Amino acid sequence: MTASVVSIVYVNDAPAAARFYGDLLGMSPSFETPGYITFDLGPGADLGLWSGQFEDLSPDVPRTSEVCLAIDGGRPDELNATFEQWKSNGVTILREPHDAGFGLTFLAADPDGNRIRVAPKG
């Protein structure tokens, strides 16, 4: 059986969220519908942005998932450069770079309030 893991992030506006994540990831979506958009992250891994518009999910529901973007090598200078770039691009920063025991990490949020953690690939 061939399987792929799709991490789904619930958003209020899938196209707007796709523009946000596309800018962060430096890539274009691999699949698009009005309410569901995915990014191919490599063999067996996808990021799905789902508005829930077909299930009558209210935009008022708090979004609380967390996506972790793992940086190869996990060098502090690379993580700090990503932090500075995101900050200068107006990304909401929830927690600045800090050592969390597994390495340097920081926490940001997408426009829907979903958490985005940047950490070393471990």
Can you give me a brief rundown of this structure?
With 122 residues, this protein is an alpha/beta fold.
What attributes characterize this protein structure?
20% helix; 122 residues; 2 helices; alpha/beta
Low-confidence stretches: none
Q: First CA to last CA: what distance?
A: 27 Å
Order of helices and strands: EHEEEEHEEE
Largest sheet: 4 strands, mixed
Structural class: alpha/beta
Shape: globular
How would you sum up this structure, described in words?
- By secondary structure, the protein is α/β, with parallel strands linked by helices.
- The protein contains two helices and eight strands; from the N terminus they run E-H-E-E-E-E-H-E-E-E.
- The protein has helices spanning 14-25, 76-88, and strands at residues 5-10, 31-32, 36-42, 45-50, 66-71, 92-99, 104-109, 115-120.
- The strands form two sheets. The chain has a four-stranded mixed beta sheet with strand order 1-4-3-2.
- A hairpin with a 4-residue loop joins strand 6 (92-99) and strand 7.
- The model has no long low-confidence stretch (mean pLDDT 87).
Write the layout of secondary structure elements.
Layout (H helix, E strand, L loop, with lengths): L4 E6 L3 H12 L5 E2 L3 E7 L2 E6 L15 E6 L4 H13 L3 E8 L4 E6 L5 E6 L2
Parallel strand pairs: 1-4, 5-8
Antiparallel strand pairs: 2-3, 3-4, 6-7, 7-8
InterPro entries: Glyas_Bleomycin-R_OHBP_Dase, Glyas_Fos-R_dOase_dom, Glyoxalase/dOase/EhpR, VOC_core
Pfam families: Glyoxalase
Organism: Streptomyces doebereineriae
